[in-house]
């Protein structure tokens, strides 16, 4: 897996290991496991839109902690996601959502961990530009390709677009650099907490796109990916 893909789905990126005093360390590990720093014949179309041939492929990526949705930049309509203009060289764009303090932190503290887990906090959208399609077999990450029809892809784009907090402006200004050299953070709508994590956001995005995914009880990446694996996937190329 490329460093870019590893960073964009890794809530910690290349951050050094967090050293916390005992006995606090075990508390932080339990909370961090629930946070984002905080994937034969061709399959049939998703059941949400019977009669529509799948035309667009998206990707759900997970490293076991954090999840994101990856789409081809060329598939995006010109009147949505104005922030993608910040990534002129990207062929694919990865979108993730998480806590505004914990997610971007290079060296998170125990206080950040507890605050992100227990108190509803502001959120950010992480956008990363990729030069190539993510490989489903990328080592260190699970990447699941899914196909959907035009209407449901439009609904997915609308959901992601509505996640940005623009405060009446045409586009949101980046709040800072992202976890990789080709990524940025943007202000987001919604509040992050233990029961509304990056993986909850990803589940909501998929549900908005018509996939048979339950949002209830989704906080951990593995809980989400169990449902994603059960969906009709695009055959390997």
Brief descriptors of the model:
237 residues; alpha+beta; globular; disordered N terminus
In short:
The chain is α+β, with helices and mostly antiparallel strands.
Neighbour order of strands in the largest sheet: 5-1-2-3-4-7-6
Largest sheet: 7 strands, antiparallel
Instruction: Return residue spans where pLDDT drops below 50 for at least 5 consecutive residues.
Output: 1-37, 39-52
- Overall mean pLDDT score? 77
What features would you describe in this structure?
It is a single chain. The chain has 237 residues and is an alpha+beta fold. The chain contains 6 helices and 7 strands. A 7-stranded antiparallel β-sheet has the order 5-1-2-3-4-7-6. β6 and β7 (183-192) form a beta hairpin. The longest helix is centred in the middle third of the chain and has 13 residues, at 150-162.
Topology:
Elements lengths: L2 H7 L14 H9 L23 E7 L4 E6 L19 E8 L10 H9 L2 E10 L11 E7 L1 H13 L13 E2 L5 E10 L5 H11 L12 H9 L8
Antiparallel strand pairs: 1-2, 1-5, 2-3, 3-4, 4-7, 6-7
Helix pairs in contact: 2-3, 4-5
